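Design job #97: recover the sequence.
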């Protein structure tokens, strides 16, 4: 399974609660925080929901 690096580039302030919870579920709690995760369908679905707040890179 390939891995991706997810970096939060925009703040979750003034975003719907569901988007804030999605960022926490991805392991992102602060601005410019990064997390390396497996590219499973569940993770990719969460990334799609908050793609305007994060940057994704393949590893």
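Job complete. Output follows.
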């Amino acid at each position: 399974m390939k891995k991706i690096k997810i970096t939060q580039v925009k703040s979750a302030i003034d975003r719907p609660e569901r988007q804030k919870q999605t960022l926490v579920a991805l392991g992102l709690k602060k601005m410019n925080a990064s997390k390396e995760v497996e590219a499973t369908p569940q993770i990719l679905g969460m990334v799609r929901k908050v793609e305007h707040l994060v940057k994704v890179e393949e590893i």
